[in-house]
Amino acid sequence: MSFRRFVSGLFAGAALAVALPGAAVGQGDSGLPASPGGWQLCNQTSYVVEAATGRFEGQGVTVEGWTRLRPGACEVALEGPLEPGVHYLFGRSSSAHRGGRKVWGGDNAYCVDTTGSFSVESPSQCASMGLSSRKFRPVLIEEADAWTTSFKELEDYDLETAAAAGVQRLLNEADVYEGRIDGYIGRNTRGAIRTFLNENELSAETSDAELVDVLEQIAREKGREVGLTLCNRTHERIWAAIARRKGEGWESRGWWQLESGGCARAIDDALLNAPHFVFAEMETEDGTRRLKGASDLFCVSRGRFAIAGREDCEASAYRTVSFKGTAPAADGKLTYEFFERDFGEAAG
User: Are 18 and 161 in contact (CB under 8 A)?
Assistant: First the structure.
């Protein structure tokens, strides 16, 4: 489909719909296209999704990745014929998206290469092979010829609205659109697309796929220019939080789940010339290890939080923990890396 048809058809304003996080969808269900054969993955989210799959082979599970899925697109991740039975699936949003990577997974840990394409019979110790552990969810495949599974988010998108919402999200992350991300393409979105094409000397006949690809690349480059990025340079999972001045007061926010080798943008805007603070806990087999050298007190909560102020945390059912000051931001951006040496002894 060309950009011109994308605007006049998909963006004509029709209401568009869909479902929730991750059940397997059989062929012909939910308006999804029939699989051309093999295990087809469909992306009913507003994010570019990168998927890894696992299947039993020999004495273990072979894990392969990454299959890239544009919003609203379907791709075959595993060629047929399929072996009916339990398979495994993990998904992550593209690093171009703001606010840290979204994850679609479960409870079954297998090894992946976070840096590029891979195929590995998952070993018992990921780190020994330079790999990272990720938690997959099981998917029961019932047909040998073809099976389809969808990635979904809380918004009720179908493939068509997911494609539209995905373009809106990427336009926003490329700093050319400030409207709602809702899968309804109106005047503001169409204008943003035309502006983007003109500024980047792209033809109005640019295909939908090319538009998404260029937007993703530019959004990724924009993401490197400003904001606070947290990176996990350890071999374990980390839960991180940040604190900073907000107006005349203070604010703390969390949690960002950082897998080994992973990064997340905790602040998307240009950083002010003001103090910033971080807190982190590392999950290990021996217990939780907390960031050392921290002395500035802020409030945190057990679940995700955004807390104004830093006084009387317990009176508001929060808890008080010590954050660590970062280096000053340079040109509106800062990357903070967590290393093994930064954490104290495990507390069981």
Answer: yes
